[in-house]
Specification:
By secondary structure, this protein is mainly α. The protein has 13 helices and three strands. Helix 1 packs across helix 4, helix 2 crosses helix 4 and helix 6 packs antiparallel against helix 8.
Length: about 290
């Protein structure tokens, strides 16, 4: 690791950036260095401008990916190199507002039933039943289960925010039965133990779970472009359809603004039926 990369990592840690954000930023800066074959602190303003034109016109990065590169390189210059950001007039690409993919409950369980590995099935079941993000599920620890209050305590979620989510009794029973099979003192979904060791010191690999989910979607005959994050979207939509308020759901999901949570109101069948009935009344006078 170069001194500049180490310094940037330390700066991000001091500012409380999430681990995944740190890795994304370091990767983006590494791509910049590889493109010019020299250290980013030696680049000129014109070279930076040409690089972002390259990302937009030749690489044709998605808006989210392009914004990550912009944020990463700006962090390097402003915080690590402590230089003025030279591209003040650089505009961020607009991020399209797409509705999330929502699965019906029967589709969710059909997909999970097609997952072969038992630990993967349990992890995906918990992610759906508790509305977790991918890494929140994979990295669940035994200490996060509060069986007295029937809650999962999510620590250091997106934005480094803690929150508590309801833990359904059946999900608790599933977790207990799963834990008895490996009895890891820390992780609910541990990785493979090193040779000669009884317990793994790290959680399972998230990429393996993602691959298993993609295969299960195909095997289940579900044609929607669903990802593991679709389980969280589906959980939120199904709870709204069952009468849970947007405010309560906002707290459970860890959203800073109710506006973020309110998008799920557009996805509920009740909302669609209400809108369809209203349109029918509006057009009642048509011949």
């Amino acid at each position: 690791m170069t001194p500049l990369r180490q310094r940037m990592r330390e700066d991000m840690q001091l500012r409380g950036l999430a681990e995944r954000t740190q890795e994304s930023y370091l990767g983006a800066v590494q791509q910049l260095a590889l493109h010019f074959h020299r250290s980013p602190d030696l680049l000129t303003e014109d070279e930076l401008r040409q690089y972002f034109l390259y990302l937009r016109n030749e690489k044709q990065l998605a808006p989210n990916t392009s914004n990550v590169a912009l944020n990463a390189i700006k962090f390097l210059y402003v915080h690590t190199l402590q230089r003025p950001w030279p591209l003040r007039d650089l505009l961020r690409p607009p991020i399209p507002q797409k509705l999330p993919i929502v699965l019906a409950p029967e589709e969710v369980w059909r997909i999970i039933d097609h997952v072969r590995r038992p630990d993967y099935r349990v992890c995906l079941s918990v992610i759906y039943a508790c509305g977790l993000r991918l890494l929140e599920g994979v990295r669940l620890q035994v200490s996060q289960i509060d069986s007295a209050r029937m809650q999962l305590l999510i620590r250091g979620g997106k934005g480094n925010k803690d929150r508590a989510v309801p833990l359904p009794p059946r999900t608790l029973s599933l977790l207990r039965a799963h834990w008895r099979l490996q009895r890891n003192p820390v992780w609910l979904f541990p990785g493979t133990p090193p040779q000669g060791e009884r317990h793994a010191s790290v959680p399972m690999d998230a990429s393996g779970l993602q691959k298993a989910f993609r295969h299960a979607v195909q095997a289940a005959g579900v044609r929607k472009p669903a990802t593991i994050h679709s389980l969280r979207h589906s959980w939120a939509t199904h709870l709204l359809e069952s009468g849970v308020s947007v405010r309560v759901l906002q707290l459970w999901m860890g959203h800073a603004s109710p506006t973020t949570t309110a998008i799920y109101t557009h996805l509920t069948q009740h909302a669609e039926q209400t809108a369809a009935a209203a349109l029918e009344r509006l057009t009642a006078g048509l011949p």
